[in-house]
Amino acid sequence: MAKKKTEEIKEPKVLQNAFKEVQKDNNFVTEILKDVTAINLSEQEITKLKVMLRYETKGSLFDSIAEIYRLIAANFKSPEKVIIIPFVGTRGEHLNIQRIGY
């Protein structure tokens, strides 16, 4: 009976990333609350939203969209350039609040 030749299984070579580190802009996207993200808002607007959303919204985020727009309209410069995008993610309801243009 012939002996089976055992071959060593080699792990595939991992290609090195061409970049040392991928650049990211953490100031452009900011987590306001665990279920609300701010995109392209100033630091002052983000601070205002954190406080207002904690104390002025109750219940479901989706039920609070009109209230959030009222808060933005009364407290932000150029509120017509702010859009709220609701979506359901793996962890439940989530809102993206974005400034479009300047």
Shape, per Cα inertia axes:
elongated
Please give the order of strands in the largest beta sheet. 1-2-4-3
Helix content: 10-25%
Q: Oligomeric status of the shown chains?
A: single chain
**What is the terminal-to-terminal distance?**
80 Å
Low-confidence stretches: none
pLDDT averaged residue by residue: 82
Number of helices: 2
N-to-C series of helices and strands: EEHHEE
CA radius of gyration is 24 Å
The class by helix and strand makeup works out as alpha+beta
Strand content: 15-25%
Mind describing the biggest β-sheet?
4 strands, mixed
What is the total tally of β strands? 4
Task: Indicate the topology.
Blueprint: E1 29-33, E2 36-39, H1 43-56, H2 65-75, E3 82-89, E4 92-99
Parallel strand pairs: 2-4
Antiparallel strand pairs: 1-2, 3-4
Helix pairs in contact: 1-2
What features would you describe in this structure?
There is one protein chain. Helix 1 (43-56) packs across helix 2 (65-75). The chain has helices at residues 43-56, 65-75, and strands at 29-33, 36-39, 82-89, 92-99. 25% of the residues lie in helices and 25% in strands. A hairpin with a 2-residue loop joins strand 1 (29-33) and strand 2 (36-39). It has two helices and four strands. By secondary structure, it is of the alpha+beta class. The chain is elongated, with a radius of gyration of 24 Å. Strands 1-2-4-3 form a four-stranded mixed beta sheet, covered by helices on one side. It starts with 28 loop residues before the first strand and ends with a strand.
